[in-house]
Amino acid sequence: MVLAQEPDLSMFGDDPFWLIALKAVGCFAFLMGTVLISIVMERKVLGWMQLRIGPNRHGPWGMLQSLADGVKLMLKEDITVKGADKALYILAPMLAAIPAFMAVAVIPFGPKDDPVSIFGTETVLQLTDLPVALLYVLATSAIAVYGTVLAGWSSGSTYPLLGGVRATAQIISYEVAMGLSFAAVFLYSGSMSTSAIVDAQDDRWFMILLPVSFLIYMVAMVGEAHRPPFDMPESEGDLVGGYLTEYSSIKFAFFMLSEYIHTVTVSMLMVTLFLGGWRAPAPLSFWEGANSGWWPLLWFVGKLIAVIFVFFWIRASLPRVRYDQFMVLGWKILIPIALVWLMLVATVRAMQNEDYEFGDILLWVAGGVLVVLLLSYVVDFFLDRENERREQEEAARPEPAFDPMAGGYPVPPLPGQTLPPVPRRPSRAERTTASVAAESGASTEGSTEGSTEGREGNDA
C-alpha cells in the first residue's frame, strides 16, 4: 500500500461568478438556519431530559423561540462601557463571529466526481477545496480567539479579563490535542483535503479505524466551542459572565452567534473527518443511488444533527468541571495520549507502505504495546516505593503544632492537622455557683470594709 497521491481539485474554480456567489450565500444561509434550529433544539432537548417544559410560547410548539431571542437582543439598549477601549470593544464581536463563518467553505456536502445541476449548470456540492483545507480550518479557529481576548481586555473590567485569559489558555490547550487528532487522519488518508479525506472513508469510517483520534477530537471540540461542561470562560458562578459581562444588545448577540456557529462548524468537521462525510450510513449504503445526486446532502445533515444532539446531551448530563481539572485533562491526558497514538498510527502506515503483512504488523504493534505497558509497570513500581518511603519519613517526623492564628486570621486545619484543645465551657450549675460565690465574696468584703470604717470612727 502506498500513500495517496495529491488529490485532483481541478473541478473547483471553474464555476461562473453568479454560481459561486449563490453557493456562498447558500453556505451562509445553511449555517444561520442550523444555528436557529440548534437554539430551539437545545432548549427542547434539555427540557425533555430534565423533565420540564421547554419553550412553548413563541410560535407553534415554541419553534420561533430563537427568532424571538434575536429580536429581543436587537431591541435591547446597546451600552458601551465608559472605561473601555471603544475601537477594540466594538471590533471584538466581529472578530469572534466572522472567522466562524469561514470554515464552512471547505466542507464537502456531496461527492466531487458526481456534480449536481443548479439552474442548468453542473457543479459540486462544495464551495471550494484546498490541498491544505484542514490547516485553513485550524487557522480560522485560531483567529476567532482574538475576539474573545480583545473582548476581555478592552472592557476594562476584572471579570471579563479573567474570562478572556481563560478562553485563551483553553483554546491553545485544546487546539494542540485537536491538531494531533487531525494528524492521524492526515496519515491514514494521505491528504489534508476535506474531499479526499471523505473519499478515503469509502470502505470504513475513520471513527472505526482511528477510534482514539475520534474520542480525542470529541473532547477537544467541546472545549474549543466553550460548551458545557467546559464553559469556564463565561462561568457565571465565579466570573459573573466572563468576557461577555460588559456586552449587551447586538454585540452580545454576535458572541452568542459565534459560539453556536463554532459548535456547528466543529460538528461538520467531525462528520467530515470521522463519520464518512456525505456518505450514506450502513443500511442505506447498499443502495446504488444513495451517494449520488442530492441524497448525500441529506445524509450529511442527518449526521450533523446527531453530532449537535451529543453536545446537548453532554450539557444535560455533566456538571461543570474546575478549571485546573480542565487544564490537567488537556495537557496531561489528551496530549500525551494523542502523541502516543500518532506514533502508533505512523508506524502502522510506514509498515503498510513497506508491504508488511497484516499479521506481522499486528505482532509488532502488540509487542510495542506490551513493552510500553511493562515499562509503565516498572516506573509505577519504583514510584510507589518512593512514595511509601516518603510517607514513612513523614510519619516518623514530629508534627508541628497547628496554630490557627499564625497568619493573623483564623484558618481551618488542613488534613492531618488538629486544632489545639479548646477550654471546656463551664456548665450552668458551675456558672451559677461561681456567680453566687462572687456575690457572697463581694458582700463579705463590703461588710468588712464597713465595720473597719466604724471602728476607725469610734476610735476617733
Any overview of this molecule?
This protein is mainly α and 460 residues long. The chain has a domain of 304 residues. The chain is built from 15 helices and 2 strands. The protein has a two-stranded antiparallel ribbon. Strand 1 and strand 2 form a beta hairpin. It is globular. One of its GO terms (molecular function) is NADH dehydrogenase (quinone) (non-electrogenic) activity. It comes from Streptomyces litchfieldiae. Belongs to the complex I subunit 1 family. This is NADH-quinone oxidoreductase subunit H.
What is this structure's SSE topology?
Elements lengths: L16 H33 L15 H11 L10 H17 L13 E3 L2 E3 L9 H22 L3 H32 L4 H6 L6 H4 L1 H14 L11 H4 L9 H26 L7 H4 L9 H23 L5 H31 L4 H39 L31 H32 L1
Antiparallel strand pairs: 1-2
What keywords describe this structure?
15 helices, two-stranded antiparallel ribbon, globular, mainly alpha, 2 strands, 1% strand, 460 residues
Query: Uncertain segments of ≥5 residues (pLDDT<50)?
Result: none
Mean pLDDT: 83
Q: Could you give a short account of the major beta sheet?
A: 2 strands, antiparallel
Helix/strand-derived class?
mainly alpha
Estimate what percentage of residues fall within beta strands.
under 5%
Distance between the termini: 131 Å
Subunit arrangement of the protein? single chain
Number of strands: 2
Strand order of the largest sheet: 1-2
Helix count, DSSP H or I runs of 4 or more residues: 15
Identify the overall geometry.
Answer: globular
Helical residue percent band: 55-70%
Element pattern in H and E: HHHEEHHHHHHHHHHHH
Rg over alpha carbons: 34 Å
EC number: 7.1.1.-
InterPro entries: NADH_UbQ_OxRdtase_su1/FPO, NADH_UbQ_OxRdtase_su1_CS
Subcellular location: Cell membrane; Membrane
Family: Belongs to the complex I subunit 1 family.
